[in-house]
Amino acid sequence: MTGFWTTDIPGYFYEDNENDGKTKVYWYQDKTIRGSSFIVEGNDGIPISAENLLLETPKNLEVIKYSNNLLLGWATIELINEDGKEFYFLTGNIATNNNLCHVTISFEYETDKEWAINIWKSTKFHN
Q1: Whole-prediction pTM value?
Q2: What are phi and psi of 71, to 5 degrees?
């Protein structure tokens, strides 16, 4: 991913940059993974907690939550119909103090939902 973030992505995925290097994109067959990271500075050097960075969660979708010792996150999965083609779209955020990683994963088959969730949950912060 970008910044201080990594994700366990299979080595056979192709890799590129989008948005002038602000977004990493990985793809293979029907699966695409994108990641962007942000450093959020608080006023007067006061850290912004992961909880405060993740306040907004979608109201109309099932939310998948994640936490470990240092990270908090939430993700949603939607079935999208775009130009007559259906695919699943995971939108996930993982945060730690002052740092946020936004991950999206698109995939064609419902049977790959668990794979997508595990890829998102493998996101780690390295400082």
Answers
A1: 0.91
A2: -120, 150
